[in-house]
């Protein structure tokens, strides 16, 4: 499946901005399920400095600086991405219990390598486990708490396969929480989301991640897009799609398995990945510093177009 994604962000300022420096994570990354075939930026005003690199998590990052006065900043990222289906669906039938995964992630490096080779016959698994360990700790926007652990507890039945634990938690979040884009902001704490049972995809992903980490399970945050299906008989609305968020869990022997609690489904050929990290703060699509500007308004438009 091939898609063209056009993501446009417009800042309008009440006063002129003299200088701004920005970081954008708006270029899809490459991995086994996805290949970014092209990606480019259209930025107005034209940046005086523009550079690209990869960050700590392997995400594509673009830095740009604008050094001329401006009252509007427009950043558009245009990418074409090819998605590939998972060839081995047996990963979803993996029967490794969550307690065993938790214990493997808590072992010393030497024990991890020995256990990985003896149980899973993999030379690379020890390295994968060590990398996954960074995702079992609290992060700025996905912090565990007794309340979150208590909510997740019903999914963590003794000796239950980790895949079943995560699918159950995903389904419970989908059932128990109301999607309400007016209730939360980026700064809304998870305790409020849990107490009021309302939020958006970002909140639901953080909720699942924090609940899993409370039990020692490695879980990471994924930012990206999801194709919005057009209703029969109606024209497709350009720009009506939106940024999306979901999460992934590390399963020894299978790698990272993705789950979408907002839609109660496993991402397949409609989820396009931009970046991943510990939480939203690691993958913010666009952020920066502006000198001047006064008050500002922000508008975002995302178009996900399926190509023939």
Features:
alpha+beta; 2 domains; single chain; 308 residues; four-stranded antiparallel sheet; C8orf32 fold; seven-stranded antiparallel sheet; Immunoglobulin-like; 8 helices
Outline the structure in words:
The structure is a single chain. With 308 residues, this protein is α+β, with helices and mostly antiparallel strands. The protein has two domains: 2-82 and 284-307, Immunoglobulin-like, CATH 2.60.40; 90-281, C8orf32 fold. The protein is 25% helix and 37% strand. It has helices spanning 98-106, 109-120, 125-132, 146-153, 162-176, 190-196, 201-213, 280-283; strands at residues 2-24, 34-44, 49-54, 60-66, 70-83, 178-179, 198-199, 219-226, 243-251, 255-259, 271-277, 286-292, 296-307. Strands 1, 2, 3, 4, 5, 12 and 13 form a seven-stranded antiparallel beta sheet that branches. Helix 2 (109-120) crosses helix 3, helix 4 (146-153) crosses helix 7 and helix 5 (162-176) runs antiparallel to helix 7 (201-213). The longest helix has 15 residues, at 162-176. The chain is globular and about 60 Å long. 36% of the residues are buried. This is Transglutaminase-like domain-containing protein. It comes from Candidatus Methylobacter favarea. Residues 193-263 form the Transglutaminase-like domain. InterPro entries: Bac_transglu_N, Papain-like_cys_pep_sf, Transglutaminase-like.
